[in-house]
């Protein structure tokens, strides 16, 4: 606690420039919004960094995921739309804004969301209540179309990442507010677009001058004194502690270059910490077993269980009616030292007991699964209290469906540089092969997926496809119970006739879905049965109609999907057979998908169909 107070005091002194020069504040809205009908060139927001360095600020935009449809003007920091947003409704992009003025470069994470054409912003999902981040609040920008309303961050601290300084806002404390006169920023004053900014600074400028001399100077002096006293206390404490082994907390608060990162108790994710049964919080100084764990030491602990306070949650990756998936960083997980990005699945607060037990059921299935390169792997879980967290390997490029759709742009520009999504026929056939292998593994373990589709396959940067989302899966070998669990919407276009009409799910109905997924791959993520309503699809499938052969797909490949759509389930192949058939295609030099003939305008993507999963 003492260290925390001292840390805060030090920060405030530092932030007033009394100890060392900090990088200038970057004013950036953490949540960006653009409407899907915003044309290219629309201004989304503006980033501004106060300069402390010798050069004028250069702004940049980075993404670790798929390319984002935004660009930043390197000189003015104005962010604009640079690609069509029409097909990107409801998508979010996690981006990094960089601002470098020749002193210390800064890097801040933002979340950009494409709203529907009404421009209505989605309610940002609340983060799960497990001592994790404060999800940044949505500033009210509705009355200012392009330039976000300026509010000076209350406090900040810094953290070194990848050679950048990442700015982090910390929760407001009375102490810091007193020490933070709102000094108007001379760098911002004369730049265009700052009327808003000036109007929103609430402190009278002349008053600030006298405030500074009357309050800041004595406070800085006091602060300096406190720092000296604090340093002595810390020195004495450390001396005592270092007699034994060095605490893990200390280890983790330093990066490899020895720069002290933010205190675990003062970071942007700070909240009342969720105390695990197994560990005491970092707040107590050391990571150690609690009494409870000491008592239960005789019982072997669940090897999957992971202390939730070692998870730092970042942005949401996606959500359904009851569940959410978050990108997070786990410390010392999976037998590896240090931080690792993971995906964390949890339930929303409105989840019923049934959904809770379904998630635990899903966890049991994953625990008993073993690993396969084409199936998303469980890394750990937090089940000792609610909310249950399922920790999975993070698959960086997200859904295969989206990846395929985004690859269409790459085809036009012939973009072949590393990491671009320029795809060949062979790449696509290989995707299908990998999914079939993952499904073969699952079916051998007695798992029926029941929602196999390109939206439930994830893809890594190395272009490895991984079957995901066992939300509907059941261990048929164990229970033989196939209760339908879904958020009410059904994946009608991927469902076999016996599933649609008789509620029967089996490996063979997964095979049917695989055939549809193969069609999705060939058509670069199109929605199956374009132009037909759900009712039409159900009737047509029952009456023996099938998805037509796309013109640019060769017969050999289409035959495989067609085989998967045999009306009689037992006449369909199993996954082993599909793997073997696709492998045969991969062994030839032939292009089974003639992408140069892909008719961009014949297929379309549907984001929302009422009552249906697409
Ligand atoms: P789900 O609820 O399983 O459909 O997942 C929602 C979203 O989270 C999907 O759009 C995926 O892009 C993302 N997601 C799920 N699992 C992972 C993972 N293991 N790694 C990365 N993203 C994931």
From TrEMBL:
Topological category with respect to the lipid bilayer: Single-pass type I membrane protein
Binding positions for ATP per the UniProt entry: 345
A GO CC term attached to the entry: plasma membrane
A GO MF label: calcium ion binding
Region (Disordered), start-end ranges: 179-199
Domain Protein kinase positions: 311-586
TM regions (residue ranges): 216-237
Entry EC no(s): 2.7.10.1
UniProt keywords, alphabetically: ATP-binding, Calcium, Glycoprotein, Kinase, Membrane, Nucleotide-binding, Signal, Transferase, Transmembrane, Transmembrane helix, Tyrosine-protein kinase
The keyword ATP-binding is annotated on this UniProt entry: yes
Pfam families, A to Z: PK_Tyr_Ser-Thr
Protein localization: Membrane
Protein name: receptor protein-tyrosine kinase
Species of the source: Parnassius apollo (Apollo butterfly)
